[in-house]
Amino acid sequence: MRAMDHGGGGRRILEMMKPARAATRRHLPTSPFKPPPPARPAEQFAPQDQVTHDTYGLGRVIRVEDDTAVVVDFGTQQVRIATPCAKLSKL
Question: What is the model's pTM?
Answer without folding.
Answer: 0.57
